[in-house]
Amino acid sequence: MKTVDLFSGCGGLSLGFQNAGFEILAAFDKWEPAVRAYRDNFDHPIYDTDLGSNEGLEFVKSLKPQMIIGGPPCQDFSSAGKRDETLGRADLTIAYAKIVVASKPEWFVMENVERITKSRILQEALQIFKEAGYGISYQVLDASYCGVPQARKRFFLVGHKDSPDNFLNPYFTQNQSNKPMTLFDYFGNSLGIEHYYRHPRSYARRGIFSIHEPSPTIRGVNRPIPKGYSKHTGDPVAICDGVRPLTTKERSLIQTFPKNFVFNGCKTDVEQIIGNAVPVKLGEFVANCINAYISDKKQDRNIVVGQLELAL
Predict the structure, then answer these.
(1) Active site residue 74
(2) The domain spanning residue 96 has which CATH number?
(3) What is the pTM of this model?
(4) pLDDT, tens digit (0-9, with 9 covering 90-100), for 91-108
């Protein structure tokens, strides 16, 4: 399926969908370090284009995509940001919706932080999609149940022209694992550590984690252990010689980027790029749910999850 990735970042969502068999025609972003990282890792083009402009809309429309995927900037919704929809970046969610409606793809996928579910902007976007005739499914997914060794919650909204609302929700439910994936499940002992430091947002929170649990959310900062760090009541061990922060490469691997994925640029930019990315395996999980739905629909199958039967 011919797909375009909007607000692509370094390409986590693109790579996940590509791995699931989707053809990525092109990607769009406006942050130069992310554009450079994307360009270093994919053969198809990425365009440094303002998607909030009419020119950007017309450019995407001219590609005639069958599917549009993407994650409009989430800082104004994020718990790490100011949580203020009036700052302007949230408007790009509406720009995304308008591009989808103007381009008329059969499918679209919009990804964002969990907190967008409480926003006015989401309700406005949903109205735009519904008025354009899309059936809508949306769900907050915990990446650790979707093949990623990280407890990262992300919102996914999937639209399809010829489906009822909630059409994909049973697939989201059925395809998740029964338990969260830990770092040990994913890496075994290859990291060479049992515990590691992840700088907390405040010292009221723990800072030390075990490889036998999912990683906390990979953020856009990666700080060293501060001198005099005091053991938090939630820390499984105290600071010792065997405890260290994760490396930049390890953080990218926890985001399920492959080992050969290239991140060039200054450390600050690279850490931010990695922290902003959609985990590759999470994107692949969503893409495979869509593939399963398409396959079942072609064969007129019904899917039953719990007490819910979805007639296709």
Answers:
(1) yes
(2) 3.40.50.150
(3) 0.92
(4) 899 999 999 999 999 999
